[in-house]
C-alpha cells in the first residue's frame, strides 16, 4: 500500500525537518520528494511566482509512483 503525505507551511516552519524525521523513522520504506525539485529557471529571478514551480509535472510523477511505476525526478538545480 502506498501512502503520500503532504507537508505544507511557511518558510522556516520546519517542513523539511519533519519530513526528514519521518523518512528516517521509516526503515527505508519512505522517499522524500520536495516541491523544490520542480523549480523552473526564472529569467525574472522571482521564484515566489506560482509559475516558478512545475506543479503539474510533480503531480504526474506522484501519480506514477502511486501506481507503482518508476519516475525520473528532476534534479534541484537550485541547490
Alpha-beta classification: mainly alpha
Average pLDDT across residues?
A: 89
Put simply, the count of helices is 2
Number of strands: 0
Instruction: State the end-to-end distance.
Output: 32 Å
The helical percent reads 25-40%
Shape label: globular
Beta content = under 5%
What characterizes the major β-sheet?
none
Radius of gyration in whole Å, from Cα?
14 Å
Outline the low-pLDDT stretches.
none
Order of helices and strands: HH
Could you characterize the architecture of this molecule?
It is a single chain. Helix content is 28%, strand content 0%. With 79 residues, the protein is an all-alpha fold. The longest helix has 12 residues, at 55-66. The radius of gyration is 14 Å and the shape is globular.
Question: Care to give the gist of this entry?
Answer:
Helix content is 28%, strand content 0%.
Helices and strands in order, then pairings?
Elements: H1 15-24, H2 55-66
Index terms:
79 residues, 2 helices, 0% strand
